[in-house]
């Protein structure tokens, strides 16, 4: 039975991953969240599931994080923030915590026999130059200005993880994110769509982690960058959902 870890299990993406994966009795889930009460409120079924182990605390707790990541096959890193503030380092601190925990487990088991879990990192199409270039110039400038510190944090986290080539890394780089039901998706290395639902994003991240044994979407050097995109509805159909959107 494979084991998947979800870091940020109470966030929008982490919650959708949990709701999607908990329905599969062939997968064990290790959940990492800061608040046990919030996790219980959002996902009451998780606490009573035999296929779920819960870890609550801060990502700076190296021992707890190492226990959460021990023997897992995939790590879904969805810890994020929408607060665009100078010095924002949520993604980078999470990346540091993951690497420290994996290095500890690697030494514990001996590097020669250690099987490193695949890290699926939630990023953004805005930090992918080739994808961002396809957006209208003014809109690209506006969004990058509004979320400059968040995007800088994502770039640093990505570069930090890419600097550990022994860690298989998959980048999920969606466009705008919105609440809503699953509408279907496709995976692309080149063509972002304006919006995708959190539900479809979660499904896409799982597909990337599992397709071809988890090898198809792993970053090679710094070239293969992945986005997910929504099909079935036009961006103009979502004007009433503005309050729920993230922007790339």
Key descriptive features of the protein:
37% helix; two-stranded parallel sheet; 9 helices
Structure in words:
It is a single chain. The chain is of the alpha/beta class. The protein is 37% helix and 17% strand. The protein has 9 helices and 10 strands. It has helices at residues 12-21, 36-42, 44-47, 62-69, 90-109, 129-132, 137-146, 148-162, 198-210, and strands at 3-7, 28-33, 52-56, 74-77, 118-122, 169-172, 176-178, 185-188, 195-197, 227-230. The strands form 3 sheets. It has a 6-stranded parallel β-sheet with strand order 3-2-1-4-5-6, with helices on both faces. The protein has a two-stranded parallel sheet with strand order 7-9. Helix 1 crosses helix 9 and helix 5 runs parallel beside helix 8 (148-162). Mean pLDDT is 82; it is low at 221-248.
């Amino acid at each position: 039975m494979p084991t998947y870890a979800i870091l940020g299990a109470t966030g929008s993406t982490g919650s959708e991953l949990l709701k999607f994966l908990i329905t599969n009795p062939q997968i064990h889930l290790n959940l990492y969240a800061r608040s046990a009460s919030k996790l219980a409120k959002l996902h009451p079924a998780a606490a009573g599931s035999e296929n779920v182990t819960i870890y609550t605390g801060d990502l700076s707790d190296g021992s707890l994080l190492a226990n959460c990541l021990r023997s897992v096959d995939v790590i879904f890193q969805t810890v994020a923030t929408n607060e665009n503030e100078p010095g924002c380092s949520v993604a980078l601190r999470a990346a540091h915590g993951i690497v420290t925990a994996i290095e500890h487990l690697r030494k514990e088991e001996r590097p020669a026999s250690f099987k490193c879990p695949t890290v699926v990192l939630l990023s953004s199409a805005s930090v992918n130059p080739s994808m961002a270039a396809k957006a209208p110039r003014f809109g690209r400038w506006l969004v990058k200005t509004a979320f400059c510190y968040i995007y800088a944090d994502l770039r640093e986290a990505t570069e930090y993880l890419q600097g550990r080539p022994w860690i298989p890394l998959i980048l999920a780089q969606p466009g705008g994110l919105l609440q809503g039901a699953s509408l279907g998706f496709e995976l692309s290395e080149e063509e972002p769509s304006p919006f995708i639902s959190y539900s479809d994003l979660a499904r896409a991240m799982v597909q990337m982690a599992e397709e071809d044994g988890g090898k198809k979407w792993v970053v090679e050097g710094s070239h293969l960058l992945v986005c997910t995109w929504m099909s079935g509805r036009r961006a103009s159909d979502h004007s009433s959902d503005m309050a729920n959107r993230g922007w790339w």
